[in-house]
């Protein structure tokens, strides 16, 4: 299978500070990866680097074989990389509907399909972004990424703060999306077991370096390594 996303000796950070330090990672089309690590390990920075939102000090980020160095974030997004940021990134002046219509692209996930997945935001389609609850903003951030029908979906702690019933629905949705194999998915998640149960592969970051990679089912069974690298209870 072809490489969809490739990081080669990537060093990146904020201004002069280097957070990712010589990171290598390759993901094929349709593959899923749990990106794990303790607080501050660099998980968000890695996703931001793929989106072009950090300062790349060295190395290469490739997408479908092309070096992305010259592409600003909007071009990466247009090329098929969608990001669900931790801070959700809603626009206060846009309605729920406008958040979706401005980015929707042809593909299996239509806006009506997204509303079907998240009825709570369907009921608020005319509400402005800043009137939504935290959970609703989170659902909208995920819906917004899905209606882009991306080739790569980067999710930064998408379950955080959601009600348990919605977490269950979202888990089922992610399992379906990953199972269909149409998208390459990178899932950053504090709950390592949850992320591992959904993905095929896992990578663990420590101080900006990938220190461990394994199939997810193997890592979930390796309590000692999980405890050592991610401090899982
Ligand atoms: N905008 C920024 N400017 C400077 N340093 C930053 C910035 N954002 C993050 N950092 C630093 O980069 C390092 C990695 O942070 P990052 O958010 O990538 O970690 P993380 O693994 O996603 O952690 P968490 O699980 O807490 O979200 C931390 O030391 C953090 O303080």
From TrEMBL:
Residues 5-232 form the ABC transporter domain. The keyword Signal does not apply. Pfam families: ABC_tran. SUPFAM superfamilies: P-loop containing nucleoside triphosphate hydrolases. Keywords: Amino-acid transport, ATP-binding, Cell membrane, Membrane, Nucleotide-binding, Transport. GO terms for biological process: L-amino acid transport. InterPro entries: AAA+_ATPase, ABC_transporter-like_ATP-bd, ABC_transporter-like_CS, BCAA_Transport_ATP-bd_LivF, P-loop_NTPase. One of its GO terms (molecular function) is ATP binding. PANTHER family: ABC TRANSPORTER ATP-BINDING PROTEIN, HIGH-AFFINITY BRANCHED-CHAIN AMINO ACID TRANSPORT ATP-BINDING PROTEIN LIVF. Belongs to the ABC transporter superfamily. This is High-affinity branched-chain amino acid transport ATP-binding protein LivF.
